[in-house]
Amino acid sequence: MPHSSLPAPRKLVVATANPGKLREFRSLLAGLPFEPTSLAELKLPSPAETGTSFLANALLKAQHAATLSGCAAVADDSGIEVDCLGGAPGIYSARYAGPHADDGANNAKLLRELAGVPHERRTARYRCALVFLEAADAAPLEAEAEWQGIILAAPRGNGCFGYDPYFWLPELNKTAAELEPEEKNRLSHRGKALQELRKLLLQRLEARHP
To answer: Tell me, what's the pLDDT at 208?
Structure first.
């Protein structure tokens, strides 16, 4: 799309209080006519995540952000599924060790659950579901993606957040926390879902501003 045909930028609320996640959204939505902010920056509360799937939670969070802010909103719900744990922690990834658990507590619980499990059986995947809403009652744009890896017994790398220091990528011989931001944005579950969402947004913008 030619730059001159883009509409003027408007505020887009990223339904998160996580500054690391907001940075990723800002990077991956660069060049689109949006000015991303977050619930935390607007001092708005986060909703209870009562959905039974990643997509249901993403829609719930996007509707909440759009309703409270009166702006367009985008939300993701993402988490990690470990095969030998029956897909846990899944949609409970951010609160695996309790309602107000931090990354350290969640990772510690995951390692306890995996104690004694051999490396080859620690296969896992990150999943991400994304929902974009122009308004609270608008039809959503949706995108989903996943990222395959293995859970290590000890952390590697200092970057990123969540379970990234333990999420090993065999083909790269690195954890997600050892990737440069640009590389992570290209490969990750959220990065791939956002790339798909970006395509959908551009298609919509091109249809309205040919």
So the answer is: 80
